[in-house]
Specification:
single chain; about 600 residues; mainly alpha; 3 domains; three-stranded antiparallel beta sheet; three-stranded mixed beta sheet; 22 helices
Length: about 600
């Protein structure tokens, strides 16, 4: 290239336009890449030439004047950028509080939880503790659950360990082994299920998917070792069901949000198997839509799918017929059917033991319908050495806010409620609150004052919670600086339109610095929107969570009465800037 330029210069047949463009293009190349396309001698040769005609003079002056005007445009654009940058820093003083507003809200809510601690004197504390103890004694232990607990503690260490491998929660939660026993009673001597018992089994499993409390079907439970979600996935596979378009769109939104917050590991795991993860996440909704469209129910779908699976061969053998030792994690020492036999023996013996104690009057029971309960008083007074009874006695004697108690009668807000509450034994004022000079109250006030937001407040209106400015002056300052970002961006976009034409005239990227400035201002606006999103955010669908002390952290989602976001994609180039500079360049370049 350098050799070609030297040859052209030696021949002296370059036009003024070509000479000027070579100089400009060389300067920009050197500024942007550090590379030199012209030697010092080349530049001197391009500049120090003698025009032969007035036309050549005019042509050189034309491109020289155009370049000088573009420098003035660059300077003005740079001033606009610096003003926008300064306004952004001023705005950040306020908007940064938006970014950490969830922190304020979380900890202020935590302080509210501390304020709800029941303030009592020592006599009230004793009375409340006594009431809680009485409530625990009234509860006693369900007879069947007592059988389960006694059976479990009577097992050998080896069998107990094997059962915990099969179900880590089996020590206190009986559903797994109860379900296995139910299945065992349906299996005949050949180790098979009859057609009739397959129907019963499928019915039981489908019923398990319905949450009576929530009045809806849920897929996260299981029946014995069979996860309900696996039946739903089997149905989806057989039907060729795939995630929907809206599921993928939602995933992309989640990815975008968590990436902005720097959460990488979780989203990388999702990306490994988007389709499988998405299907599982949205399978309940997909099932509901399918059931509605096909005039059926989720229960019927699950039952039909399980019946088909039983015919094909269900890969979840019942413990009573399983000779395997293999599990998902650590293998058991004994075959599964041997473990189950030992469990049934222990359960039978535990039932006989408890019944003998009841018959002898050492333990007493209450009967309510079909439910039989061993009374708390008889358990507490029992002289035996059973571990589950010792644990019951310890629980009765131990005050725990998480076990619940009946509020004192002087608490009108919760009179008679059976709820959880921690107690604060301290000096009270006339209103029953901690005395103003108590350590607890003084500490709360100091922490609350330190955490209170400076610029924003929450306002309740018509059942909604709104985030508002603390004063009109703060609101005005925020809106003014926010608008300055929009205006600055619009002006820089206008200069971008101007420099696109200058690029064509000079055959070079004359707007390389302007592009960086526009990108920076765009990032300012993205940051503004992210701060606002942080302030108003709810849980990130599996990537966040709730912190609670007896109540949800965010009791109500936050809203704003006005839209504070900046929609940069809708910002148009400033018309006045574009008009003014277009007219100036048209005086030099008619084709501009």
């Amino acid at each position: 290239m350098k050799k070609n330029i030297s040859n052209l210069l030696q021949r002296g047949n370059l036009t003024p336009k070509q000479r000027y463009l070579l100089l400009i293009q060389a300067d920009i190349l050197e500024e942007t890449t550090g590379k030199k396309s012209l030697t010092k001698a080349d530049k001197e040769a391009l500049i120090n030439w003698q025009a032969k005609t007035n036309k050549e003079v005019r042509e050189w002056n034309r491109y020289n004047n155009g370049w000088k005007l573009s420098e003035r445009a660059r300077i003005e654009a740079e001033f606009i950028y610096m003003e926008t940058l300064a306004e952004n820093y001023r705005k950040n003083i306020i908007s940064t509080e938006l970014s950490i507003y969830p922190f304020y809200r979380e900890h202020l809510n935590t302080l509210q939880a501390l304020k709800r601690i029941k303030v009592v004197d020592i006599n009230e504390a004793i009375e409340i503790t006594k009431k809680q103890r009485e409530e625990k004694l009234k509860e006693g232990i369900d007879f069947d659950h007592a059988i389960y607990q006694l059976a479990f503690e009577s097992l050998s260490d080896e069998i107990r360990k094997d059962i915990l491998i099969l179900d880590p929660e089996a020590e206190y939660e009986s559903s797994y082994l109860d379900d296995e026993e139910t299945i065992a009673n349906l299996i005949d001597k050949k180790g098979e299920l009859t057609k009739e018992n397959k129907e019963k089994y499928a019915e039981l499993v489908a019923d398990r998917s319905y949450n009576e409390f929530a009045k809806e079907y849920q897929l996260w439970g299981s029946f014995a070792s069979l996860p309900i979600i696996d039946i739903a996935k089997k149905w989806a596979k057989d039907k060729g069901i795939k995630p929907r378009k809206k599921d993928y769109e939602r995933l992309e939104k989640i990815k975008s949000r968590v990436k902005k917050r720097g959460i990488k590991k979780e989203i990388e795991e999702v990306e490994k198997s988007d389709e499988e993860w998405l299907l599982e996440e949205n399978l309940k909704e997909i099932l509901e839509d399918y059931a509605k469209d096909n005039k059926t129910t989720i229960k019927a779908i699950l039952k039909e799918t399980l019946l088909k699976w039983l015919e094909e061969g269900l890969p979840y053998p019942s413990l009573v017929i399983s000779e395997d030792k293999e599990t998902y994690g650590e293998d058991t020492k004994l075959p599964h059917n041997e473990i189950f036999k030992e469990w049934l023996k222990a359960k039978k013996k535990a039932k006989e033991t408890l019944q003998k104690l009841i018959d002898k009057g050492e333990l007493k029971t209450d009967q309510t319908g079909q439910d039989k309960t061993i009374t708390g008083e008889s358990l507490y007074n029992f002289k035996g050495n059973y571990e589950f009874i010792k644990e019951f006695k310890e629980r009765v004697d131990r005050y725990s806010a998480n076990d619940g108690f009946v509020y004192a009668d002087d608490d009108p807000e919760h009179k008679g409620d059976h709820l959880d509450r921690e107690l604060l034994i301290t000096e009270k004022d006339k209103d029953g609150k901690p005395a103003i000079f108590s350590l607890f109250n003084m500490s709360l006030r100091k922490i609350e004052e330190a955490l209170r937001p400076r610029y924003f407040k929450e306002v309740e209106k018509n059942g909604e919670t709104y985030l508002e400015f603390k004063s009109d002056d703060i609101k005005k300052a925020f809106k003014t600086t926010r608008q300055s970002l929009i205006d600055g961006y619009a002006k820089l976009l206008a200069f971008s339109e101007i420099f696109k034409k200058i690029n064509k005239i000079y055959g070079a990227e004359t707007d390389y610095l302007l592009k960086q400035r526009i990108k920076s201002v765009a990032e300012f606006m993205d940051q503004h929107n992210l701060y606002l999103e942080n302030a108003l955010q709810e849980d990130l669908a599996g990537f966040g969570g709730e912190f609670s002390i007896g109540f949800d952290l965010y009791e109500k989602p936050l809203k704003t009465k006005e839209d504070w976001t900046i929609k940069k994609d809708k910002i148009a180039p400033d018309a006045e800037i574009k008009r003014k500079w277009t007219e100036k360049f048209q005086e030099i370049f008619n084709e501009f």
